[in-house]
Amino acid sequence: MDPTLLSILITLAKIFGFTFALVLLLVAYSVYAERRVAAAMQDRVGPNRTGPFGLLQPIADGLKFVLKEDFTPGHVRKFYFWLAPALVMVPALITVAVIPFGSEVAVPWLEEPIKLVIADINVGPLFIFAIASLSVYGIVLAGWSSNSKYPFLGGVRSSAQMISYEISMGLSLIPVLLIMGELNLNDIVRYQSENGWLLFPVLWNHEGFSTSLEAWALWVPAMIAFIIFTVSIFAETNRTPFDLPECETELVAGYHTEYSSMKFALFFLGEYAAMIVGSGLIVTLFFGGWSLPFGWDQSIMEANGGASPWWLGLAHVGVFLAKVICFILFFIAIRWTVPRFRYDQLMKLGWVIFFELALVNIFIAAGIKMLFRN
């Protein structure tokens, strides 16, 4: 087969397999998990009637959205009103392209192994920031085009919130890039596979556990970066305790008050897709992505004569998904545990605390790197 055609077919298979089959399935069952975890935390039963243990509930929810009347109020600006849900959903799915969901899989009839990432580009974090920032336009357009005061206030709140925390989030990433010396997400995972995870820099081999003083010195700025980055992801995805753009007690439902049927569902799916991408990015940057802990990948390859066994690539996919699911459950637990911030508290946290802390953290990481280089 022509190599170019083969490359296109493999890329299409990765797009449909990872983006549409896996991520959208995760989105559907994240909603189910959210309802079950919330019910458990509130001592309720939760959805348990549709299928065994309620596992078919996401399908029932999807059918309900499809069959509902697609109503568009007469007073809205229709073109922008219809465009806004797509602008929220599509960027979240595009950013999935640069997140490595596994290492490599060797296929017998192919000369080179298949990399388990859709687009292995050298500016992965910058690509995610650039594309993810487009979703704020969808929320602003939804609020403005609804021609109603509550959606408009929700859109304004959301744009202020997302711009405020994008700065802290970007600054918090710089120490990580200083430590890794890479902008390619696959290379960042490989670095952690060989040197220990950024937040758990311990290796284990036949000689026992090993670590380094430099790794633990850099653990301090890495942990500060992790806290700022994770909290900023909460703010970027409008999740509780940062859900002020759609808080019911003040704004009815915020920017999507006037939406119904599948257009409302797209906002809903966009939020969960952004949460999954955020979880994937946190896992990739701070918890070794698809790699096993303690540098076990290297031990397995050494035991196999320096080559990667065929099953290791598939095991890496399972490891990556397990880590992402843990973080999704963490997002859900926080939502049903922590109360909502006041708006002035939210702004103070972003501009007065995180912004300054992220700036200082860059100098701490750079100082430690210089100290150990000399």
TrEMBL record:
InterPro entries: NADH_UbQ_OxRdtase_su1/FPO (IPR001694), NADH_UbQ_OxRdtase_su1_CS (IPR018086)
Main location, first listed in the record: membrane
Enzyme category, top tier: translocase
Enzyme Commission numbers on file: 7.1.1.-
Membrane topology: Multi-pass membrane protein
Homology family: Belongs to the complex I subunit 1 family.
Quaternary data: NDH-1 is composed of 14 different subunits. Subunits NuoA, H, J, K, L, M, N constitute the membrane sector of the complex.
Protein name as catalogued: NADH-quinone oxidoreductase subunit H
Originating organism: Sulfuriroseicoccus oceanibius
